[in-house]
Structures are given as structure tokens and as C-alpha cells.
Amino acid sequence: MKGLKIAVIGGGSSYTPELADGFIKRADRLPVSEIWLVDIEAGREKLGIVAALAKRMFAGAGMNIEVKTAFERTTALENADYVIAQFRVGGLWARALDEQIPMRYRVIGQETTGPGGFAKALRTIPVMLDICRDIEKHAPKAWLINFTNPSGIITEMVHRHTNVKIIGLCNVPIGMVSNVARLLGVESSRITIDFVGLNHLIWGKDVYLDGEKVTERVLQYLCDGESMTMKNIPDLKMDADFLKSLGMIPCPYHRYYYMTEEILEEELKEFNKGKGTRATQVMEVEKELFRVYNNIQLDKKPEQLEKRGGAFYSDAAVSLISSIYNNSKDIHTVNVRNNGTISSLPDDVVIEANSVVGSSGARPLAIGRLDDSINGLVQTVKSYELLTVKAAVSGDYYTALQALICNPLVKSANTAKMILGDILKENENYLTQFRAKS
Amino acid sequence: MKGLKIAVIGGGSSYTPELADGFIKRADRLPVSEIWLVDIEAGREKLGIVAALAKRMFAGAGMNIEVKTAFERTTALENADYVIAQFRVGGLWARALDEQIPMRYRVIGQETTGPGGFAKALRTIPVMLDICRDIEKHAPKAWLINFTNPSGIITEMVHRHTNVKIIGLCNVPIGMVSNVARLLGVESSRITIDFVGLNHLIWGKDVYLDGEKVTERVLQYLCDGESMTMKNIPDLKMDADFLKSLGMIPCPYHRYYYMTEEILEEELKEFNKGKGTRATQVMEVEKELFRVYNNIQLDKKPEQLEKRGGAFYSDAAVSLISSIYNNSKDIHTVNVRNNGTISSLPDDVVIEANSVVGSSGARPLAIGRLDDSINGLVQTVKSYELLTVKAAVSGDYYTALQALICNPLVKSANTAKMILGDILKENENYLTQFRAKS
Amino acid sequence: MKGLKIAVIGGGSSYTPELADGFIKRADRLPVSEIWLVDIEAGREKLGIVAALAKRMFAGAGMNIEVKTAFERTTALENADYVIAQFRVGGLWARALDEQIPMRYRVIGQETTGPGGFAKALRTIPVMLDICRDIEKHAPKAWLINFTNPSGIITEMVHRHTNVKIIGLCNVPIGMVSNVARLLGVESSRITIDFVGLNHLIWGKDVYLDGEKVTERVLQYLCDGESMTMKNIPDLKMDADFLKSLGMIPCPYHRYYYMTEEILEEELKEFNKGKGTRATQVMEVEKELFRVYNNIQLDKKPEQLEKRGGAFYSDAAVSLISSIYNNSKDIHTVNVRNNGTISSLPDDVVIEANSVVGSSGARPLAIGRLDDSINGLVQTVKSYELLTVKAAVSGDYYTALQALICNPLVKSANTAKMILGDILKENENYLTQFRAKS
Amino acid sequence: MKGLKIAVIGGGSSYTPELADGFIKRADRLPVSEIWLVDIEAGREKLGIVAALAKRMFAGAGMNIEVKTAFERTTALENADYVIAQFRVGGLWARALDEQIPMRYRVIGQETTGPGGFAKALRTIPVMLDICRDIEKHAPKAWLINFTNPSGIITEMVHRHTNVKIIGLCNVPIGMVSNVARLLGVESSRITIDFVGLNHLIWGKDVYLDGEKVTERVLQYLCDGESMTMKNIPDLKMDADFLKSLGMIPCPYHRYYYMTEEILEEELKEFNKGKGTRATQVMEVEKELFRVYNNIQLDKKPEQLEKRGGAFYSDAAVSLISSIYNNSKDIHTVNVRNNGTISSLPDDVVIEANSVVGSSGARPLAIGRLDDSINGLVQTVKSYELLTVKAAVSGDYYTALQALICNPLVKSANTAKMILGDILKENENYLTQFRAKS
Fold first, then answer.
1. How far is A111 from chain B (nearest CA, A)?
2. What ipTM was predicted for this assembly?
């Protein structure tokens, strides 16, 4: 029997060693024979470094996996069993712009939410659409595991405009489970969270320890000042009365929506110190990581990788592949077609939900109606996402403007227009789908 | 045959002469025999003035209608055919507070939207609930025509918590029709607007002149700088690209949502000039109006009344009563139970929609799904309204806090908490349903 | 100003004189200049007779309307303002088959419901699709007024597969209003019925006399044995307890669903007497009608026309055209896109509902959820209709089989298969879209 | 730590030894300390026999479980952890009537579907409501595992009218999985079926072997004449074209709906042979079973039990309890609140669906819209079920009549009325909620 073929789009990413580590940890369950790392010419050096490291890692683990690199993706995709998308159009320089442009207008500058995530979506969608056309042709049975951000919007687009089988992934839910476990002093495996919402906008509606509801206990920890944030989000304390009124566990990204002004002040303060944005820090971390990766003695995933915001993302991807391949029906929190799961939303939109994953894909567990306390935000962000997909695919200026106006982090139509102007101008090499607009 | 009995709650309002005028204009269609003007003791003087004016107006028109005043409402309600609600709990002083409190935190201060409308709802709902209990008992067949603001929220509460037959009224839609007619230089009767949305959050999805679609023509007028505002809303010009991207006619209140920052600056600028808020101006207008009303020569609706923001409200109420009484199946834009009209919203919420009005009430014309460009805002405001009704009826602090956090004009949870603190404290005489919270 | 151009597909129908009469009665409101009567070669003689009669009628009324005949429809459609569809594919001989085939298997044989209506839809849909392609090309602004049966299914198909603006018409609702008026001894204009359902499956949820609910009074008349049937439906009395439990006014066609066995016995009894089916009687009526029409003295709609089952259909069509042309916003009960009107059904299906009709089309009045007592039947028939449209357009045997199995008048899958076999075989000249299936 | 307390309502049932066997097989996972068998006085002898057998079985397995019997349920329920409902109001004599009454009118006579299931629901619901009131009081934290039939309707009632945590169980889905496994010659554990529908009206939308879709292969077996029926349902072959057009795996009970006439003929033929109905056969089986149970040598579940139609039901119940107790998140096909799972049905109705079961209950996996081919039947039966619950709780004759008219196996309103008359009369000792109606 032939082993599995894996294609990684954006293979030169600093996350790749974690992917390799994920396959090594699951050697008994995932008979991988080839891994193709695909990247663009501009990433040739980094691709060489991570490919060499991956080879050393598999060799060190005594595994017989071929690691191949490619700058043209069709050969890599040909009959692939799983395609992993982890690319970043425009790299960290584009991210820096995404974070800076909104701040010029006193709007949150963030990589995946607000205008920053919007710009990233506009750049990424045309590329992802091309990739999907190739998958449809060269690997129609493959599963696409996406963790290119904004993961929810990308998954939405692939569902609407292609026939590719996609599951969208995010590390926020596993991060929340792990944080709750830490607060309660128990193993993560004993915790279940009933998640409800969208990518980067997900609430823990109820938390269970060994199946018993402990939501209030967890909320009390948060009210008492315990933290549940991520590397890339300022750790501002949420108000206790707010948490009690919400009655759910917010995700780290909720700070952008519930503490907009406070986060903005923090961002501006940091930026004005001349430290740049999060992109600047990540560039430093990356530089250091590739220095470490390049050490030919190294044949393990280095500890430094965990400093990166997206840690555990890649391991989650391999874990998901294992559930699909082995038809093991584990529960993962992923981005899937709604199909009634949240009955306040149309069937055909993508949500993030606890889902049973097996060989036939991910089946979300029914949730029912959204509570009024979160309905507005979920509906608003979903409408924003749908308009963003439409704008990115059509290149229509007015749809893009409406999308940005609908984003809850943008304060006015005029601000949206100015930000959109800057985004279109400063990303013009990437946003060829948009007709020139002075 | 006995004539109709009308009871007016808040009968001492400066709007009452317009009501009287409405009955006079429809003398041939509405056989009214008694009008009861009910008010509170504190309004005794004003009540006396308007009652006297109303008597002179009916006499002047040669109509035999008894005008009675009352400070206790059960006699007034007894077997009434129509009850009109136009009261204001706390009067204009409370309105001034509603407008000022939010501004302390750089949040829009407005009578019916944002935290101001929220505070008004909290004060009004317990009183309206008491009135409805009396209507259920003393006039179970009566129609309640409500134009006490926030009209949509009040109608929502009456639908959820009472058996009273209510139709909620607003003058924004007729105002928009009349403005569009003015722009196109035609009679209002030739214009139809397909309205979609909620009270004070309504869009003209399409505009028809004699049944032919002229939406783009009207939008072009607005893009060219033509104004469509109301007395009480700063007349800031909306951006042409924004209007094109929206593709619908916004209502005057949309400025608060689409131009939040700009309106806030305008409000603060005016307030800092020491002119007070809109309430202050209205107090002046009212003082002048009652001076005019008190002139015993006067037996007609004085022209000055049209300066008041709510002009035409009362005439719309009488026109509505005529459609019900005569089963004439005219189309009015009113607040009614959704029942599928907007299929993206639950059946059991109140919306503002074009409705056929006859003796069996108001039947809205089906609309279908909300466009993504307006879905988020409509869902958000509706969820805010439902939480507000729940908070006002239960007096639960945390529900009130969630309501305010969900309001799209409030920028952060912390701001919501501070504003709520001020509202509860400074309205404590009215908000007895809330347990003390330091 | 140029007058209106009307194209009538199936212009040689015996209904045409009623159409002409309808235009004559509305001469003051509908400035018609040309009426094109289109038919197939086989109908040349009848077409000649009705065209001549129509000319005499207009002349007799002193109206200057050109009446033209055509056997090729594009010229007739060119820039038409209104297209009226009243054709019958296969004529009355095909109808006779539709009525007889099901009876072979002890299943109701009826022209528009059950397997008979199904066969008629399979024959009609390909022709209607061709007509719509021509309308899209030659008269894209025209309104298509359809009363070709099964009117609900035809309208559903046009909505799903074409861009033609269609309103589907039926005379059942006006017939019910007129019957209720007769029972109550009042003018039809004083009666309103809240209709809910689908074409030929419509209930009067509530009945109002001058806006006052009289549903129970009307039900009592029916319980007492008063009749409300139509020419083409056996007048079997409905059980009083059944009517009380239903609490709504059933339509005449409901007998087929609620009294299936009884109607079947009646049909078989009549048929076994050698009288043929309803088609046979209609052939007689038609022969007589055309004899009368051919009288060159005649210049009025002859009384005999009212014996025909579809009486008043054509007048309803002209009345509808008048509401559209004059933007008069009258309420008609027509077949329109649901758009949330019945919130238990998807937005994109066609229902029959009270609708406000003006120049921009028909807007149904919101109804809300279906009661459990009628939900099953409505859902079943709507699913049957959707499958029938799909089968007729695709020519897929298995879809056709599912459609017929889903029809509530068909008793078992095996019966459905046998009936379908006969339909396909005996209609093979018309059902070319179906691949041969032995 | 205290062991689990189990209360079995209908403890004297012939199924109880399987329950006992289920607990023995899961001794390592379910620390049961007490089992209370509750029954009515009339069942005293049988209760004694099964209790004695259960004791011998536990002793034989070396388990220390107290077996107690009771004729009054409050002590048995006091602080119970799990309550199992397996009672039968009126016993097999009532079942015989349920099967015979409809046949008098040429309608299917069946225990759980059609008028037979309706009569059983009317008898069972008042008793179940009383039991639930006791559970609310004496064991508010207990899970109620219901396999009293009609299981879907009973679960619907408990969800609507009580606060008891219920999961409804049926052995049809496990039976289908096991039959498919047999056809494919593999272990059941390798088969997954995507079930969709309601209790005793469930389709296998897709079948997977090790996660790979094999639906067409399974359908082909059925087309080729392979059987998939149950002990209590005549094994009539389904037509191959019908199966292809359906494209899903029907459940054994579907024969009643898709082959109504054929099954009826079969039933009447058997009955006319003087063999009685299925109840008569079951009485024989039961008599034999209790003879076997009474053998004091016996300390194992006897093989003969598997002849009973409901075999494996009880084992499924214990397996479910184990998933709840151990929070093991296995997938069971159970009756749960819809919550959007089937997006064509309201959130608040009970459906039968694949669900993840853990300590917090059963969460169904989202399905989306119903296909048109099954929408009508599902909607009709669900509406029938809702009306049946309403009729059984209220005792309203007209609601009962509507329920029966809506049942798709009843052919006409008149037939429904006659059957209802017989049911009410012949069950009058049980149906005290109904006012006398001659």
C-alpha cells in the first residue's frame, strides 16, 4: 500500500517544523510517504532551510518520508491526499501595513480582524482561488486543511466558489481549552467547551469538566483577573460585571470588540514608542527561528517555535488529518458549513463549531439560536465576511466599501473610505482584481 | 349610533392640537363623540391649555366632540375605541439628561437611539405596562396607537408582555416620502418607498414614482448634496461613494450609525457653546407653543407647531385610526409583528414595515432576506431592543448592561458600564424596578 | 401616447371572449391598442372564430382595438406590455387521458391535482420555458399573467428557470369570496379572506365582513350543509366535526385530499356509467360555445360561457393588469415568490397569497408559520411541485418517479411507478424531454 | 463513593433481563449499586419472576447489585441517577385493539405508526406526565432514558411539558446499521449511517464503510432483493426503481408509507386467517419467555429473548447510560431537541439523529435542509405528532381529530372520525382526559 502524499502551500513557513513534528508524533497512525513543500521564488532560501530541517527531523525519528520542494505547485498537488495551506501573500511587510494603515485613522490595526484582516483577505483570496482550481484538477479527492488567515473568510470563499473539500482551522479554541485547563489545574482532555461563533469571534457558551458544567467557576477566575490571552493580543483585563452579564467565556480576540478604545490606546502607545507593530516583533522572532533552523545539528522541533503566535496550529492540522485518515470521529473545533448548526444563520455560511471529524469530513454539533447578547456581533461579522468574499472575488470597489463599513471596528463610513483608499493604493501590486479608483 | 371614544395618554402634550386638527380634517370619516385627555398632576396647567384649545378648534370647525380631561386614566379608558399614547416619562428634563449622560463618555447623546433612547425605554416601559394592564381590563377591544418613543421598543414590549392590540407609529417614513417627493418635484401620493428595517433604523430599499423604480435618481440627488434630514438631527452630508455602495435611501437617523464620529463632534461642539442639547431647544419651542395655545382667539392648529421635531406624527395617528375604522386597507409604514416579513428575523419580533391597514389591524408586506449590507445593523439593534425590553421589565442590572454593550453606538463594555451607572443613579426616581447597585 | 399591446398565448381558447369583455369593462382605465391572439395551427378554426367575435365585441363597445391572430409568437410578443398565457398542451384529449390514467389504479383522476395535474405539468413546462425564452428576448419588460394550469407549478418553474416577470392567477380564491358573500347575503366587496396555502390548496384562515371576523359563522353554514364547490368538483358534503376541528374554510379542491376515497368512488361511478370524465363534458360545452361564438350577430360575451369551470378567470386577469398598469395597489390573491410570507417555507418557493398589486408587481401580505393542521399537506404538495418542476425541466425518470411518489393522492410507490409508466407512454409525443424507459 | 441508583418504570417487562445483562457486560464501567423495578399491581407476578431472575443473573456474574421491587414509584425514584421507562399502558390487550381498530376501516393497524400508535400515545402520555412530575420532585438530576413507544412522541411531550432531562431511544437505527453490516459482510463498528428523520421514520441518507461512502452499493443489495426488515414488519420487497429514485436507505417502517396498500393486504390476509395481529404472537412469545425466566436454574439472559421485536433495545439503553456516566462522547442515534439540526424544522421539535452523548446529554450532528423527496413525509408526521401531544395533554376531541386526519396513513377525514370514535370508546378506561363524545 502506497503511503500518503502531503502538499504544503507556503512550505517555507517557520511553522513547517511543527508540521513535521506532528507527523513524527503520529507515525503509528499516519503512513506518510511524501511531503511536498511549495513556495514562491522569493522564499527560496527559507524553503531550503526548513526542508533540510524537516529531512533531518524525519531521519532522526527513523521515518522514511521523502521531503521535496517545489516552486510550481501542480506536480506537488498531483494526487495529493492532503493539502495544507499556510501561506501569507505579501509576507510580513504586508502584515505591517495591515496593522499600520487603520491606526492612521484611530482604528484597530490587527492582522486578522478589522481593516487589517480585510486587506489580508483581499490579497489572499485571488491566490487561494487559483490554488483551488489546481486542486480541483490535480487532486479532486484531497482534503484542504486551511490555516491561512483570516481562516474563516478563506474557508467561506472556498465553500462558495470552488468544489474543494476544505476544513478551516484555528488555534484559538484549543488555546482556550488549554487555558481553562490551566486555570482549573486539570488536564486539557478533561475539559469540553461548547463553542459558538465564527473564526476569531468565538465564545465558550459553557465549559464542562468531565461533563459537569463549570462555566461559572471559570468566569469567576476571569473576574478575579486571571488571564486568557494569546501572544499577539494585549492582555487587558476584562471587567467583572461585563463578564458576569455575558455569562460566557470570551475569546482573546473579543478584546478588540468589547474593549475597542482601550486596545487602540495600547496599540498606539506601543507604536508611538517606535517599536513598530506586532509584525515587527514577528520579523525578529522569525529571523531568530531561521537562524536556529539552519543549525545542521538540529533534528527536532526547537523550543523557540512556541514563542510564535500561531503555536500549536500546525500540530492541530496534523491531528485533524489523523482524524480524517483514521475515521476516528474525534471532536475538533473547526470552520465548516453551518447547515443549521446555528439556526439564526443561513445554512450556507461558514461558522466555527465543535465538529465530529472522520473520513467523510467534519459534522458540526447543533447549537440552536444565538443568544441576543452575541447575535448582533455574529451577524455583523458574518455579513462583513460575506461582503469581503464578494468584493475580493469581484474586485468591485463599492462592495469592498460596504464590507469595510459593515466591519464593527470601523467607526464611520468616511473612515472606511479613507482606509480603503490606503489599502487599495498600498497593496496595488496584489489587488489586481480592483479597477483603478482615484 | 354612538360615536367613537378616544383616550389620549399624555393628553397635555404640545402635539394634541395636531391630533385635534387630524380629527377635524377627517370629520366625514371618523364620527368621534368624546376625546379624553389624560395626564399627570404635574402637567395640569398644560393639560388645561390644550384642552381649551381643542374645544375651541372643534367648535370652530362646527364639530360636536366632547373634550374631557382626567388625571386618573381608568374612566378615560373605559370602553375607549382607540387609545393614543404620546406621553413622556420625566418630561424634557429627563430628555436633557438622556442627551447629556452619554456625551460625558464621548458617546452619541440622542433621545431615541443609543444610551439616551435606552434610558427613555427603561423609564417608559414600566408605565406603559401599567397602562396596558388597564387597557386589557377596561378597553380590551381598543386599538392602542403608540407614538411614545422609542416607539419600536415600546411596541416590542407591548407585543411580548400584554394582550393589547397595538400599532406603533413613527413619522420618519412619511417624512422620507415627503422629502423624496420634494426632491423629485412631485406630489407625495405618487411616491412609494419599499421600506425595510426597524423604527428609527429604516432604509428605503427602492423608491417608485407612479410604480416605476427611481431609486438611482433619488440617490443621485443625495450624492449631489441634497438633504433629507429632520429638525432634530444635524444635517451632515453623506458621502457619495458611501451612498452608491449602499444603494438604498438611508433614513435621517442613520447618520448616528454611519457618521458616528462626525455627529458626535457636532453635538459636542454645540453643547460646548453652552446651548444645551436638543432638549433645551425643545423646551424653548414648547414654552412658545403653549404661549400661543393660550391665546383664546386661536381656534386652529398654529403654524409654529411644525417646528417641533415630531410634526405630522399626530396626523399620521389619526390617518391610521381612519384606516382601521373604515377598513380601508391603505398602506401605512408602522411597527408590527414580523411574522416572516423579514425572513432573516424571528417571526415574533417587531419591525417597521409597509403594511395594509384595515379593521383587523396591520398586515406587513413580505420583504424576504436582509441584504448583507444592512443585516448586521438590523440584527444588532433588534438584539439590543430585546435585551432592553427584558431589562426594563425585569429590572436586572446585568441584562441592562448587556443591552447597552450591544448597542452599536456604545464603544466598549467599560463605557457601557459607566453610562449605565449614571443612568441608574440620575433616573433613580423612575427606575424603581432596578435593585440598588453601587 | 401609444396604447397597450397585449399578447394572448392560447388565444383561440373559449375563454378569450371573457378577456375581451374584461377589457371592455375597463375601457376607461386600460388604453389597449392591440391584442394579438396566438395559437397553434391545429387551432386555426377556433382562433378564427374567437378573433372575429372579439372584433365584433370591441366594435360593438365602440372601442378602437386591433385584434390580430398569429401562429408564430415572436411578432406577437415583440414589445408586448402584457402576455397572457391560457394555452393547453395536447388539448382536451390529453386532459381526458390525465383524468383516466390514475383511475385505472384507483387513484383520483383530476386535471390539476394528483397524477393528472402532474402529467399536465410535464407537458406544459417545456412549452412554457420556450415561450419565456421568447419573452426574455422580445418583451423583457412585459408582465406574464399566467392562468395555464397547474398555475402554481407553472409559476414556480418560471420563477426558478427564467427572468420573466410572472404573476400566477387562479379563480379559486375569488370563487370562495363570492361563495362566502352569497352565504352571508352581502356584496363580495365587503368580504376579506385571509388566504393561506398553495394554488388549488388554499385555506381561508379567517373571514372578515367589513373587517370583523366572521369565520365561525361561515363555518357553521358549511357544517349545516351549505355548499362551496365549483363546476368541476363533485359536491360532496364535508363532515361538521371535521370542519370544526379544522377551524378554517377549505377550498373546493380540498375534497380531493380530505375525502379522497369518497371522491374516487364518485368519479369511478360516473365514469363507469360511460359518461367519460370531466373532459368529455367540457368538450360538449366547448362545442356548444364555439357554435354560439360563430353567430355573427353576437357582439357580447355570451351567458353560456359561465358554465365553463374557469369562469371569471379571464376577468380576474384583466383586473390584475389594470392594477399593475394603474399602480392601484388593490389586493389580489395570486401566485408569487414566498419571500418569508409563510415563514415555514423557504423564501424562494411560490405560494398563493393575498398581495398588494401595483406597477412594481405583487407584494404578498405576511402570514407567519403554518398551523400544524395544514403544515403537512402544504409542505408535501410544495415538495411534490418542486420535484415536478425539476423532472419536467430535466426529463429525469427517477425525479419524476419521486415527484409522483410524493404526491399525497398517490397511495404507494408501486402505484406511482405504474401510473408514471402509462403517462410517459401515452404522452410520448409531448414528453420528448424524457429518455425512453421501457 | 456511592454506586448508581437505577429506577425502571415497567420493571416487570420481559425486556428486563436484557437490561440486567447490559449492566453485567458493562460492570467495569457502570458502578451500579441498586436497581428498582417498578410496576403496577396487575403485573405483580411477572415483576416477581423478572426480579428473581435479575438477582440470579447479578449473583451469577459476581456483582453486588441490590434488586428491589416496588408498586409505588416515589421511593424508587428518590435520588435515582437514571430512570428507564419501558412500560406499556393497557398491556398487550390494548395493543391488540390498537392493531385491530384501524383494520376495520381498511387502514394500517400497527403498534407505533398510524392510528394504533396514536391510540398508544393518548394512553401513555398522561401516565408519563405523572411520572415526570415525580421525577422533577424526587430525582431532578436524573436522566430519563425512554423506550416506551411511540418513543418520538413521548420524548416530544416530555420536552414540551416537563423539566425532565430525557433521551428517547429506538432500536431501528442500530438494527439498520447491523443489517447493512451483514449485507456488506463486515463488523457493525465499521459502518456509519447518516440518519435523517423522526422516530420510526428515519432514512439512511448516506452509508459509510470505514468512512468511505458506500450508499449505492447498499442500495444495489436492496434493489437485488436483500431484506432489511424487523421481526414485527411484513418483509415485502421494495421496488428497485423506487429505491434508486429515493437514493437513501429506507427504514423498515417506511413500508407502511411507501407500500401502504400492499402491507394492508398482507395484514388483512394474516388477520383473516384467524391468527390475530402481531400482539397475539407477542403474547405467545411473552408467555414462553416468562416460563423460561421462572426456571430457577437460569442465571443468564435466555436466547429466546431475541425473538422479541424490541431486542437490543435494552442493551442500547445501558450503552447510552454508560456514555452519559463516563462522558465518553460516543455517537448514538437518539431522539433529541432539533435545535437547527434539520434546518427545515423548528428548533423546538424532537427529531431522531446521530448525536454525541456525554455527561451533558446528547448533541445532534447538523444535517441541514430536508431533501424534497422526504420533506413532505417528515413535516406531515411531525405535525401529526405535535397535534397528538396537544390532544393527549388537553383531552380535546377536535385536536385529536385533526391529529388523526393529519396522519398520512389515514385516508380521509371521515375514516379518521370513525377510527377516533372507536379508539375513544374502546380505551375509555385509559383516556379519562377526554370528555365523553358519543
1. 21
2. 0.95
pLDDT at D436 over 70: no
Nearest to C330 by CA among C357, C363, C353: C357
- Alpha helices (H) along B14-149: 16-25, 44-60, 73-77, 91-103, 114-138
pLDDT value for C438 = 44
Nearest residue of A to residue D141, measured between CA atoms: A212
- Give which of B331, B330, B324, B312 is closest to B19, Cα–Cα: B312
| Separation of alpha carbons A173 and A182, rounded Å | 14
Beta bridge partners of residue C184, listed in sequence order = none
Taking CB atoms and an 8 Å limit, are A401 and B372 in contact across chains?
no
Backbone φ, ψ for residue D156 (5° rounding): -55, -45
Q: What is the pLDDT of residue B228?
A: 75
CA of C85 to nearest chain B CA: how many angstroms apart?
A: 24
- Dihedral (CA of C185, C187, C192, C198) sign: positive
Residue D437 scores a pLDDT above 60: no
Query: In a 3-state reduction of DSSP, which class is residue D220?
Result: helix
Mean of the pLDDT values across residues A236-251?
95
pLDDT along chain C (438 residues), means of 10: 92 94 95 97 96 97 97 97 96 95 96 97 98 98 96 98 97 93 95 97 97 95 82 83 96 96 93 88 91 94 75 85 96 97 98 97 97 98 98 97 97 96 96 74
Degrees to nearest 5, angle at CA A108 with A105 and A113: 130
User: Are A242 and B399 within 8 A, CB to CB?
Assistant: no
DSSP-derived letter for residue D412 is B
Which region, left, alpha or beta, applies to residue D398 given φ > 0 means left and ψ of -120 to 50 means alpha?
A: alpha
Chain B residues at the A interface, defined by Cβ less than 8 Å, are 238-239, 241-242, 244-246, 258-262, 372-373, 375-377, 379-384, 386-387, 390, 397-399, 401-402, 405-406, 408, 411-417
Give the closest-approach CA distance of C313 to chain D in angstroms: 30
| Distance from the first to the final alpha carbon of chain D | 58
Cα diameter, chain D = 61
Q: Is the pLDDT of residue A437 over 60?
A: no
| C414/D239 Cβ within 8 A | yes
The residue of A349, A397, A412, A420 whose CB has the most chain B CBs within 10 angstroms, and thus the best one to mutate to test that interface, is: A412
Contact across the interface for B347 and C365, Cβ inside 8 Å: no
Residues in contact with C251: Cβ distance below 8 Å, sequence separation at least 6, in sequence order: C172, C176, C197, C200, C201, C202, C203, C204
> What is the model's pLDDT at position A310?
62
Domain spans, chain B: 1-438
Nearest CB to B380 within list A258, A262, A379: A379
Q: What is the pLDDT of residues A14-69, one digit of tens each?
A: 999 999 999 999 999 999 999 999 999 999 999 999 999 999 999 999 999 999 99
Q: Which chains would you list as touching B if contact means 3+ CB atom pairs under 8 Å? A: A, C
Q: Which are the contacts of B333, defined by CB distance < 8 A and separation ≥ 6?
A: B170, B173, B174, B195, B202, B352, B353, B354, B355
Q: Which CATH superfamily is domain A1-438 in?
A: AglA-like glucosidase (3.90.1820.10)
Say whether C256 is catalytic: no
Percent of chain B with pLDDT over 90: 89
What confidence tier does D438 reach under pLDDT thresholds 50, 70, 90?
Answer: very low
CA nearest to A190 within chain D:
D327
pLDDT of D331 higher than 50: yes
Task: Give the residue on B whose Cα is nearest the Cα of A237.
Answer: B414
Q: List all chains that touch chain D, counting a touch as 3 or more CB pairs closer than 8 Å.
A: A, C
Phi, psi of C95 (to 5 degrees): -60, -40
pLDDT for B224 equals 87
Q: Enter the pTM of the model.
A: 0.96
Does residue B227 surpass a pLDDT of 90? no
Percent of chain D with pLDDT over 90: 89
